[in-house]
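Section 3.1: Structural characterization of target chains.
Under the original work plan, the team committed to producing a structural model for every single-chain target entering the pipeline before any wet-lab resources were allocated. The record below documents one such target. The sequence was received from the expression subgroup and is listed exactly as submitted; it comprises 225 residues.
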Amino acid sequence: MPRGLFITFEGLDGSGKTTQISRLATWLKERGHDALITRQPGGTATGDRIRALVLDSRSAGLAPMTEMGLMFADRAQAIADVIEPALAAGKIVLCDRFTDSTEAYQGGGRELGSEIVLELHRLLAANLQPDLTLLLLPSLEPSLARARRRNQRTAEESGPDESRFEQEQDAFYRRVWLKYREIAVREPARVVLIEGDLSIEEIHKKIIEAVAGRLGGLAAGALHP
């Protein structure tokens, strides 16, 4: 059986990743492809516990290196339990965040730098590289405002507290945003940058174009809109 394809979605919270992942999964399934959605942190029993710890606002005292270590612990478990088995079974894996997020948030936002992130990825994540990364990068201020409103609404509805990162200052997010752009410039063959304040439909169209272009060789007539 041919190996599946690994597609990651990146961007700040509030950039529309969740909506676009769901729409792409539906589009793929309508064309007969077996698509699996997962996320980081989370996606496994261990990962969900790590997610609860890392994103909870009560974890305010986490040192940057501890935070990064937890992200890679989650990632190693997800690769072993979910991502590699799905790829081996020929599935298309759609992952909400991967190592680019760690490079942007911990490498950029926490100012740990890219080198240590990439080395840990090599050591702990078997240097697994996505076949395609879709980076949604709308303007910083609107996306951050959306994320903060969403997390406040979730907390008010007695949902999980996942607002720890949204409590960071705007300077933190500016560093994250800039690091994402740096990654896109460094790896243009893998990363498709979808930039600007576009509509949901406009973003979806660009995603379909990117996916069709990358997967066309795998399933030639089935991946045309």
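The helical segments are 17-30, 45-55, 64-88, 99-109, 114-124, 140-156, 170-186, 200-215.
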